[in-house]
Design brief:
The protein has 251 residues and is α/β, with parallel strands linked by helices. The protein is built from ten helices and 15 strands. α1 packs across α3 and α5 crosses α6. The relative contact order is 0.13.
Length: 251
């Protein structure tokens, strides 16, 4: 079997089963595990999958550039944004992550709402600058351009001084075994810090992120309170998360 044929076979298994086990594929094809692992490494370098111990999981579409992500699951992100925005109450302090889904939360906060939003996203800040009743605390630091958010020591120090009622977290991968993941170590650390400073953490979970993985772990799912999802997701996509005791909120 040619290399391209092996890789196509691996990707077909990944699409069908949601994961690839290197040992199983090597036995199916009568090839060494080293050959399959090399194929997995090359596919991971191409951004086609995310390698994990013993095999691979789907790579998150949310690892693409911000401009590309704006066109992914647009209607779903709007629905998630509306559902999350309805959870915010007057007088609360809300931590809001960066990214395209978090921007939809900012856009759909009720016009009459009176609350404080803490964010490390200049994009979210600009959106909330038009809201008449929202006080905005912008966390500064080094700009991570992929997500247009602040990271680094200055951001961590600022976050440590704040206590919030709720944190709406964005990630690029949500997997029942691997937990919450993202594509940058510094960004993952900031998300952990924001979650630690919040009484409740809810993950903005558009469908392309469910079952996917990225290189850097943020938190295990047991350390967050729930997922905000699109209303039309099949129950089988959510069952493993419900089994973990997570609350699932939708529009």
């Amino acid at each position: 079997m040619l290399t391209r044929e092996r890789k196509d076979h691996i990707l077909a298994i990944l699409q069908r089963d949601g994961r690839v086990v290197a040992k199983v594929v090597s036995q199916q094809l009568g090839l060494s595990e080293d050959t399959i692992r090399r194929d997995l490494r090359e596919l991971a370098a191409e951004g086609r999958l995310q390698r994990v111990h013993g095999g691979a999981l789907p790579a998150s579409a949310a690892m693409a550039s911000l401009a590309q992500r704006e066109d992914v699951s647009t209607a779903g992100k709007v629905a998630i944004g509306k559902a999350a925005a309805r959870m915010v109450r007057d007088g609360q302090v809300v931590m809001l992550d960066g990214g395209t889904t978090a921007l939809q939360v900012a856009r759909h906060l009720a016009p009459e709402l009176r609350a404080t939003v803490v964010t490390h996203s200049p994009t979210v800040t600009a959106e909330l600058g038009r809201h008449p009743g929202i006080e905005v605390e912008l966390i500064g630091g080094r700009l991570f351009k992929h997500s247009r958010v602040s990271v680094g020591a200055a951001a961590m120090e600022a976050i440590a001084r704040i206590r919030a009622d709720i944190f709406f977290m964005g990630v690029t991968g949500i997997h029942p075994e691997l937990g919450l993941t993202t594509g940058d170590a510094d960004e993952a650390a900031i998300k952990r810090a924001l979650s630690r400073q919040s009484a409740e953490t809810l993950v903005l979970a558009s469908r392309e992120k469910l079952g996917a993985a990225s290189p850097f772990r943020v938190l295990p799912l047991e350390e967050v309170d729930g997922l905000v999802v699109e209303a039309d997701l099949p129950r089988e996509m959510l069952q493993s998360y419900l089994n973990l005791g997570l609350t699932v909120v939708h529009d």
